[in-house]
Each structure stands twice: as structure tokens, then as C-alpha cells.
Amino acid sequence: VVMFAVLGIVAGRGAIEPSSEGMAFAFRKSAYLLALALAAGALAVATALASGSPLVPNWPWQLASAFVLCFFVGMFEEGLFRGIVLGALLARMGRTRAGVLGAAVVSSLLFGVVHVMPFVIGGQVSDALGLAQAVLKTLQTGIVGLLMAAVFVKTRNIWTVVLVHGLNDLFAMAAEALFAGTVSTQYVNADPTAGLASVVVYLVFLVLYVPVLVSAVRMLRRVEVPCRGPFADDRLQEAERRAA
Fold first, then answer.
1. CA distances from 197 to 114, 139, 201, 212, 226 (A)
2. pLDDT digits over 26-59, tens only?
3. What is the pTM of this model?
4. Residue 147: which H helix or E strand, with range?
């Protein structure tokens, strides 16, 4: 709520009001990403059923809780990393296409680093296997962040990325909510077997995310510059474009 309030005050109501046109664009550009998440979630459910794992007794409540969690996590993380961090970087770096791309990359890598930082602080990243997991998870999450950054830059509306982010997380976490009754995440595993499995999974997703990366970069390269982001005055941006 604080993220949205700051974004609304500084960038204006247009940044936080739902936009049907922007949402259609976001879902079109994120269709492949969401399809991957849905496929991974369906595979996890099918594997659990095939192994005879029972649904938790209160699975409807757990699934609803996961939905609420993913929605608000999407609001917070997108409001912070795309709305505030990317918006601030664009205000400073958005004069050129290279600057726009740089702002998107920096904000996306920060987004990825934050996901593994608790494990760094907790001491799980203490050997080569832990470091490999942390780096690969940062890159995987960073690619997702780069796509969200590109969509946000194109739509200048935070809801477009909030909904995509929330659905992507929900698809990935639904199986755990249904069969384990939790949505906890363990991005870095100290156990060698689990850690090696995580490395393999991250590598597979990095390969699968290549089209996501290509799509994000293409969108950012086609952005009309200067692109000062949601914090800049529209009239000033238009004057800078005419001068350019």
C-alpha cells in the first residue's frame, strides 16, 4: 500500500489506475512466461498425485491463502522494483536507449539479488554449490524482472506487471500449497543433493527463459526516448523528444 501511495503521489493516478489496454499488452507479452509457470505447476501437481501424496485437508483455504499472498507480494515487489527503483533510475538514465536498458538491467538484478540475500545472510551461501545456486537464481529472477521492467516501461502502469507477477508466482506455488500446506521457498539448499537439484532446475529455466530475455530486450530497444519513466513530467519528456 505504501509503494502504491508513493507511486500515485509522485507519478500520478495514471500509474496506479487499472488499464485494460495495458493489461492486454502485458498478458500478450507475458504469455510464454505464464505458460512455463503453469506447465511447471501442473507437472508438480501431476508428480504429487502419481506418487500418492494426498491433498492437505484444508486445501481450498491453503490455495486461497496462496492466491492472496502472491497478489500482495506482486503488489509490493512491483511497486518497489518497477515503480520506485526503475522509475528513479529512468528519471536519471532514461535519456538514451542504452540508459533505458541499463536502468532496466540494474533494477532487475537488484530484484534478483534480494531474493537470495536472506540465504546469504543466513550462511547458506558458504561454498561453491551455494554460490552457484545464488548466482543462477539471481539470473533467473532477474530475467523475469527484466520482462516486467520492459512491460512497465511500455505501459507506464503498475497493475500490468502486478497481475502477471502474481499469477506467475501462484502457478509455481500452487502444488506446494495443495500438498504441503505451505508456500515457503528455499532458493539455496545446504544439502548437497537438494542443492545440486536446484542448480539443474535453475539451468533448465535459464535455457527456457531465453525467449523471455530476447522479448524484453527487444521491447526496451524500441522504447521511444527520452524515456524518463513515470516520475517525469509528460510535457518535459515530449519537449525532449522533439528536441532530439
1. 22, 17, 6, 23, 44
2. 999 999 999 999 999 999 999 999 999 999 999 9
3. 0.92
4. helix 128-155
